TrEMBL record:
One of its GO terms (molecular function) is kinase activity. The keyword Metal-binding does not apply. It comes from the Bacteria. Keywords: Kinase, Transferase. InterPro entries: HDOD (IPR013976), RNase_Y/CdgJ (IPR052340). The lineage of its organism: Bacteria, Pseudomonadati, Pseudomonadota, Gammaproteobacteria, Chromatiales. It comes from Rheinheimera salexigens. This is Histidine kinase. Residues 22-215 form the HDOD domain. Pfam families: HDOD. Signal peptide: none annotated.
Amino acid sequence: MSAQQQLLQIIEQKLAQDNLILPTLPEVALKVRQQTDAPNVSLNALADIISNDTALAARVIKLANSAFIGRSIKVSSLNQAVTRIGLSQIRNIVIAMALEQIFTSSHQALQQQLTWQWQRNVQITSIAVACLAFYNSQHGHNNLSLDVLTLVGLVHNIGALALINEAEQFQDILGEPRFLQHVSRKLAPKVSEKILSSWQFEEQFIYVVKHWGFIKPEAEQAGYTDFIRLAMIAKDQYEDKALQQRLLDYYVAQKLVPSDKFMQQPEINTVYQNIRAVFI
């Protein structure tokens, strides 16, 4: 049995026996979530928590001053930044930004895989949010929030993180990203579901990680899963190209995006670049 077959078999066994080691949510994300769940939550208290993580605090200020937020007057303090972003969005935004902390390894080859996976997630997220921003501008009020989709995008394939970490013991395949990507496509949705359940994420997040890989639209109305699928289409990630094209044609007909060349639309591409810049 090859090392690749061994890895796949071991992961499948650990999944079946519920023995796969899952990543933990960063401490700052846990504290922010606890604070926002408190009945007497305050923006100042949230800023105090975030301030303990210098890199995260700088990124929050960067977001508050970004073109995506769209304010001409710059803020210089974390308290101002948190206030500008707002209580309704700061929870998901901070958790999303903190996730990068768990995409790390002391093993060089493994770190390359984790860096690639994080950058991929950022790209998918940025495309998805840009498409939703366009959709919202055209269709007015709906129940889809940009901050929720930001977090959805960054965790939609979080199971790949655990799978890449599991591969560390198989040194001879760490240099084969195609195999690890194959394992991710096959098993990541199941692992993602387990991770988000262990992190006590809401059902709307778990629904997306279970369904984004299906090349079909949501049954009743546009949902977060559809915008993740649009991002996957933009990156040409689905193996069945005929189904991928039919799904894109449907999304264009439903006016989720203006055309099949939607990433060339200035309204979408500009927002995509603005969001991506926040995570670079």
